[in-house]
Amino acid sequence: MKVWVLRRLTAIAPLITLLFLVAIFVSASPSFATIDNAANILRQVSITAIIATGLTFVILTAEIDLSVASVANAVGILVAFFTLQAAYVNIANVPLPGGFAILFAIMAALALGGITAFGVVVIGIPSFIMTLAMMQIGAGISALLVRGQIAYNVPDLVKTLGSGSIAGIPWIVIVATLFLAVGHFVLSYTRFGRYVYMVGGNREAAEYAGVNVKLIVAAVMIIGAFCSGVAGMLGVAYYGSAQQNQFDDFLLDSIAAVVVGGTSLFGGRGGIPNTIIGLFVLGVLNNGLDHVDIDSFLKILIRGLILLLALVINVYAQKIRAD
After folding, report:
1. Percent of the chain residues past pLDDT 70, beyond the cut
2. Top mean-pLDDT range of 154-158, 188-192, 288-292, 309-313
3. Buried (b) or exposed (e) across 210-249, using 16+ Cβ within 10 A?
4. Which of 49, 70, 158, 303 could be a cystine partner for 138, CB 3.0 to 4.6 Å?
5. What is the pLDDT of residue 7?
6. CA–CA dist 163, 177 (Å, integer)
7. Where are the alpha helices (DSSP H) in the chain?
8. Comparing C-alpha atoms, which of 278, 260, 266 is closest to residue 321?
């Protein structure tokens, strides 16, 4: 029994953590245990969920992407920039529709992901270093476009999906759910998903089995950038504006959601269900801390300690499996 529990530590620990946090905050604040607050938690984690979906693919291959938040910020600003420019570009005296701004912004996200993929799989730059450079490039694009200003223009579709609702359900929650569902389907029921796990579990064995490892790694990097780009566009509508460094906090939150949920940093183990649990852990933690009277700086420390604990469990569980 002990061995069974230890081998499933990364799956059990996040769920126990989630239940523990819920119990603590329910007892500490009556306003926490309400339907409205539960809906608020779902809205708060939606942008992180979209980014974390792509990041799950990346981490499952034993790679890392530190540029996700920077790409989200850059693409969010780009869709606002392209929307503004489209208003001044007329074809037969008719302004370009907002769909062009969305298309150009998505193409920019895929291009940034393609550059990352090229650096990692063709040049051979470690993903940590390559995405660190891309993080600066994304920040540079954001700074160049806004120059310290704030942009408000976004296409109507982006505005609806980012800040609108249907039957009382926010569209951004629906979009996040769809991303998580599609991500889970791809990882669990497609050949590509099996290859992702194979590459992360044993890259050399995957190569011997005929898997194009470089292609898989390149693909997950582009998927990560695409998810970040969509999150950035919807985030601009959600927050009501596009500005520099707007999504910086989402880097830690996205990585934490994947890792806290139990997906192995060493690749090959975990998946979208783990990420969902991690999202709820972070959502409950961040929201619950706002419901109790606690120093705002202490909140940052508590989040860091939770992440550290998750990392320790992650590494410890990997050692148990190796023994």
Report:
1. 89
2. 188-192
3. ebebeebbbbbbbbbbbbbbbbbbbbbbbeebbbbebbee
4. 70
5. 54
6. 15
7. 2-7, 9-28, 35-60, 68-86, 98-117, 127-146, 156-163, 171-189, 191-201, 203-208, 213-239, 250-260, 272-291, 296-322
8. 266
Give CA–CA dist 65/183, Å, rounded: 17
Element (DSSP H or E) covering residue 270: none
Q: b/e per residue, 166-188, with b = 16+ CB within 10 A?
A: eeeebbbbebbbebbeebbebbe
Token reading at 58: 């990346």
Any idea where the domains of the chain sit in the sequence?
9-322
Residues 180 and 276 sit within 8 Å (Cβ to Cβ) = yes
- Give yes or no for a contact between 92 and 107, defined as CB atoms under 8 angstroms apart: no
pLDDT of res. 91: 45
Q: Class of the 9-322 domain?
A: mainly alpha
C-alpha angle with apex 285: 279 to 289, nearest 5 degrees?
150
When mean pLDDT is compared across 31-35, 80-84, 194-198, the lowest value belongs to 80-84
